[in-house]
Amino acid sequence: MLNVLKQQYGMIRSTREILFAFLEEIPLLKLHTKIPDFGSGSIIRTHIHVADCYRYWLGSFACNQKRSDFTFATDEEIDQANVNWVRERFASVDDIVHRFLDEFDDRWGETVKNEVKWQEEPWGTTPLWLLTHTETHEFHHKGQIVSMARHLGYQPPNTDLD
What we know:
By secondary structure, the chain is mainly α. The chain has one domain (about 30-150): Up-down Bundle (Four Helix Bundle (Hemerythrin (Met), subunit A)). It has helices spanning about 1-25, 30, 45-60, 75-80, 85-105, 125-150, and strands at about 110-115, 125.
């Protein structure tokens, strides 16, 4: 199963690369333009949110990355971010996903329990749920990102799996 999940994540990375290439063609000011009722407000903020979701759920929650090592992107970082900065953030995501896949190989149905900062009690779920959540979360927000780009007058390429 591990090989299939690594192949699947490779396909997700391929679609992400198509999105990165497209976003590099859009002026940075447009990537930071706030669009009401979409994602996290702007294309760049939404894309960073996706990376931080992977980092939180797979790295911090599941793999017990030191809490002091984990930080969400700050407003200042987001305000200064460009596509290359987001690419670098996703490079760390790639490392986390591969470490997560290796860590939980053959343990996809076991319960992983950890603290969640917005809940009083520890919460538990399976590694398969965490992987499914982060991947579907990325595709949900990718749809929002391409919709935001259309609202800004840009025609995105096909970013779905071929």
